[in-house]
Amino acid sequence: MGHKEPMSIATALRQIQERKLILPAIQREYVWKPSQIIRVFDSIMRGYPIGSFLSWRVLPQTISKFKFYGVMKDYSAFDNRHNPVVDIPTDREVVAVLDGQQRLTSLNIGLRGTYAYKVHGGWTNKPWSYPERRLYLNLLGEAPENEFGLKYHFQFLTKDDLEATAADESKSWFPVSEIFDAAEPAAMMQIPAKYGVGNNETAVALAAKLWQEIHHSASLHFYEEDEQDIERVLDIFVRVNSGGTVLSYSDLLLSIATAQWEGDARAAVHGLVDSLNQTGNGFNFSRDTILKSGLVLADVGDIGFKVKNFTTSNMAKLEAGWDVMSTSLHVAVGLLSDFGLSGGALTADSILIPVASYVHHRKLGHSYRESPGSREDREALRSWVLRSLIVRGVWGSGLDTLLRDLREVIKAKGGSAFPVAAIEQAMALRGKSLAVTDALVDDILSLEYGRARTFAVLAALFPHVDTRNQFHIDHVFPAARFDKKELASHRNADGAPRFTAESIDELVSLRDRLPNLQLLPGLENIGKSDKAPNDWLAAEFPSPDDRSAFLARHALPSPLPHSVDEFTAFFEQRRENLTARILDKFKSYRPEPIGLQTGPPPVDLDEELAEGDYED
C-alpha cells in the first residue's frame, strides 16, 4: 500500500466523470444528510483537512471478477437512492474507493449535482414532496449563529427558495456548481459580477477562496492498495469501515453479496425484507435478520460475521438457494403472524431463524399453517416460540452459537415433527434454559399492559385463543375506574376517605399488571368498554355454565369484582390462578440431561470479537 500524489477536488471529480474513479460493489449506499455535506464544504473553505482516502487500483484481469458502481451525482430520497451500475472495459485499470465514498459523493453532489429530500409534512409517496435542491453559497455574509460552529453560509435551496429570498439584500446566492465549471481563474472572476456583487470585496474574496480550494489546493490524500487479492481487499474494507457512521452487519454482508452474486443481491434482499414485513399486522425485520437467516438456511458452517466466511462459494450457496429460502421465510413469518405476533409484539426478531430453519428442513409450505393433521405440531412450535420470547436473555449474547446448535438439532431430529425436547436440551446446555423458576414466575406476573412480552405471555397461557384472529389485551377490571381524583372522592359511611393516598397509588400500580389482563376478541373488548366485570359477564354469558366455562378458560376467580373495593382481593386470587397456570403451561418439554451445565455458556471468542467490533 502506497501514498499517491495528492490531488485537488476538481481533479477527483473529473476522474469520477470519466469513470476512472469508481466504487466497488462492497460499498454501501449513500447515507449522508444535507447538513453533513454543508459541514464538509465549510471545512473546505476554512482549509481544514477532510480526512484521507483509501483506494484500490484494480488491474484489467481483476475487473471482470467484480461489480462496480458510479459515484452518485443526483440523489433523491424518493426515487434515486441507488448508485448506478457501470460497465468497465476490461482493457484498462481503474481506481476503486474503499474508504471515503460518503465524502466524495457529497463533493460530487454539491459541486455537480442535486439533493432531493422530503419537505416537512409532505406525503412520503408523492414525488412533489421531494423538490430538487442545489447547494448554494451566500456571497454577502457568514452563516447565522448555529450549533455546528459553521462560518460560511452554504445551503441547499429549491427554485422557490431562491425566489422567496430574491429581495433580501443580505443574501446573494450563487450555485456552487458554477465554481466547478469555472476551470480557469478568468471564468471564476466573472461570477461575482454575474450575481450583481462584482464590487463587493467580501463576495469577490469568497468566490476566489472557494475556487482556490476546489481547483488549486491538492487537499485530497489517497492511500492506494494495489494487491489484487479480493479477500485481502474485503478485509481492509471491513476494518477501515468499522468506524465513523458504523456499517451494520447487513451493510457489509449485503455489499459483499452484491459484489459476488451473479444477480442483483441488493434488489433481492430489499424486496424480501419489504415483503416479509407486510405479513399480517406487519413486522419490522431488518436486513441483518434476513441475511443471517439466509446463512443458516444455506447451511453455511460458520455463520459468524467474519470476512473469511464471505467467500465466493458461500455467497454462491446463498444465491443458488435464495428463492427456496425466501419461500421458507414467508411461511415462517406467516406462522409467527398466526401465533398472534407482529412487529409490536415480537420481542426478538431472531426467533424467525429457527422457525424458518424447521420449515426449510421439512420443505413445508403454507398449507402447513392450516392443515388439521399438523395442528398438534403447530401447537408445539407455537408454545416453544412464545415461551422462548418470554424468558429474558434467550436471544441475546451468544446468538450465533445457539442458532448453529438449533440448526443441527433440527437437521438430526426434526424430520417429521418439531423436536421440542431436543431443542430445549440444547438450549439449556448453552445456558438458555426455558425451565420455570420462582424468579421467572415473579418476572412474568410483574409484566404490564403495553409491553411486548405481555402479549406473548397471555397467548402462551391461554392456548384456546385463536391468535390468527384479532385479539386485544383487555383490563379485566376497567382501567378507567382507577382515576385518582375519582378514587379520592370515595367516602365511607362516616364521611372519612375510603382510600388513602398510599392505597390509591397501590391500586393504580396494580391496574396494568398481568393479573388484571386478559385476551379478548377485538369486537368483544370494544363492547365491554368500562362496564363492571361481573355485569359484563352476566350480560355476555346468560347461562351459568357458559359463565363458568369463560372463567375457567381465562383463569379468573368467581365472582368477578363489581367495584374497586373488591379489586385487591380479586387481584391476589387471579395472581394465584396465573401462577398455577404458568407452572403447568410453561413446564419444560425436555428431560433433564445428566451433568447439565449450570454456569454461564462457553464463550466463542471469534463470535464475541465479531459482535463487539462490527454490530451496531
Summarize the structure.
With 616 residues, this protein is of the alpha+beta class. A seven-stranded mixed beta sheet has the order 1-12-3-7-2-4-6.
Domains (count): 3
Low-confidence regions: 590-616
Largest sheet: 7 strands, mixed
Would you count the extended β strands for me?
A: 14
Given helix and strand content, the structural type is alpha+beta
State the helical fraction: 40-55%
Overall pLDDT confidence: 85
Ends distance? 29 Å
Which descriptor suits the 3D outline? globular
Strand order in the largest sheet: 1-12-3-7-2-4-6
DSSP strand (E) fraction?
Answer: 5-15%
Rounded to an integer in angstroms, the radius of gyration calculated over CA atoms is 32 Å
SS field, number of helical segments: 27
Q: What key phrases describe this protein's structure?
A:
616 residues; alpha+beta; 3 domains; 5-stranded mixed sheet; 47% helix; disordered C terminus
